Each structure stands twice: as C-alpha cells, then as structure tokens.
Amino acid sequence: MFSSTLSIVAVVFMGLLAVGGLVVAVFFPQISTKAKTNKRIGAISSGGSKVRGNQSKADNTNNNQRRKQVQDTLKQLEQRQKDQKKRVPLSTRIEQAGLSMSVKAFWIISLIAGLVVGAIVLVTGSQPWMAGAAAFATGLGLPRWVLSALCARRQTKFLEEFANAIDIVVRGIKSGLPVNDCLKIVANEIPEPVGPEFSEIVDAQKLGVPMDQCLERMYERMPLAEVNFLNIVITIQQKTGGNLAEALNNLSGVLRDRKKMKAKVQAMSQEAKASAAIIGSLPIGVMGILYMTNPEYITLLWTTSTGHGLLTGSGVWMLIGVLVMRKMINFNI
Asked: Is the CB of residue 304 less than 8 Å from the CB of residue 298?
C-alpha cells in the first residue's frame, strides 16, 4: 500500500516537473529577450536625449525635431509589424515558402496525407483510436511542418544574396542611377529568391504603390530582421532626408556582420546539437536493437493495451525532452 502510494506521488511529481520545465523552456526566452530589448531601448533613448552644451539653440531644435520624427516613424513601423505578427494567414505562409498552390489545395494534400497514414497504422493491427490519432496528427501537423521547413530554407537562401543586392543598389546610387533602376538591376541579376522579391517591388512601383508599402509587403513575404532593417532605413531616409547610399552601405556592413555572427554561433553550437541528436535517437535505436535481437520481448509494446499506454507516455515524454533541448540549443540573433 505504501509503495503504490509512493509510486503515484512520484509519477505526479515527475509530471508536474515536466510541465514546469516545458513552460520555462517555451516562455522564458521570450520574456528575458523582451526585458533586455526594453532595457536597451530605454538606455539608448536616455542617452540620445542628452545634448552637448556647445551646440546652438537652433541646432538643438532641429536635432530634437529630427529625433522625434525618427522615433515616430519607428513606432509606426513597430506597431504595423505587431499587427502583422498577431496571426499569419495560411495563404501568406504558402507565399513565404515560395509555393504557388492555393489554400484549398494545401488542405486537400493534408487530408490525403492524414488518411494514408491512418490507413497504414490501421492495417498494421493497431486500434482504431490510434489510427485516428495518427491521421489527425499527420494531416494537421506534417504539412505545416514541411511548410515551415520550406520557409526556413527559402529565408536562408535569401540571406545568402541579400547583402550583395544592397551593395548593387549602393553602387548604382553612387553612379547616379535612380533607386527604381537600381532595384530593376537587382531583380534581373540576383538569383531566386532575392531577384523575384525585388521584382515584386518594381512591379508595385509601376502601379504607383509607395515604397514604404512595397517594403512592408516584402517583409510579409520574407519576415526577416534584415528585411526589416531595409524597410526602416529607406522609410526614415524618405521622411527625414539624408544620404541614402551611405545609409545602405552601413546596412550592408551590418548584414554581413550578422551573417558572420550567425555562422560563428552555428559552429559553436554544433556540439550541443550533436549531443541532443544522439540523446533523442537513443530510445528509438535501443528499441530497434531489441526488436532485432528479441522480438517477442519488444512486440508487447504494440500488441497489448499496457504496451500502448507505455508507448503513448514515452512518446509524450520524448516530445517534451526534444522541445526542451531544442530551446536550449536554438540561438536567434
């Protein structure tokens, strides 16, 4: 009696511990990053409000007006981006992945994938509820996972040539070409996906769409911080004036530095990622070895109701562990 009660208490404690760890792993990085961002913005704002004593009153007034105008522009851009990030439609996600299918076609593919996996699970001798759960998880999760992977691959490919595209625009502006002609050169010379994205801007400009709206639409299709930097630089330059070539040249340097930093972080985190991959694959590998050496021992997991429960619980625990490890080794800069 005492041992059974102790076992129940231990299971409940481990379950609460797992849920707490999952909540911390998912939400703590966002909270800490937001706090650091607000602290840095406050420090920059307080530092930027100091004016040197040797400046004249007219210069102070102009600088304050320019600073206020820049701050208002940044607030407007930030508010628009918050509104866009609230809920990304599926059609936008498909466009971000570079696919030309419709939302209806995506749901049809998801339904077919779910039915196929559910039928395979049912044919192998599993219970109907397991087949239904597998079909639901596959139809709702697998296509979206593939879509996210395609978006990530396209964004990585975009960053490979984005800095070169900015350099072309800088050289064109310094040689006396208008900005639209520089964008046309980028659209024709830079390969996919950078070229088609700039081509969308050129086509929208021909229809009379303002540049800031074109860049916002580009940010929707390619939600990257680097694209947001370009949007901020051009929008502020249009409203406050200044040397656009110099601003874009500085932006190009920032983009290349970010690329180097990402490569450095990726190289330094490879050991942790390899360890996580080994730890995550150990249970599956041990199960495969046991199946080859002693099939009667391991087949009880999918031929008995107790085995089904153990498999379900193990799958949930493995999923929690994988999510926690992913948060620990995933570095965003």
From this structure: no
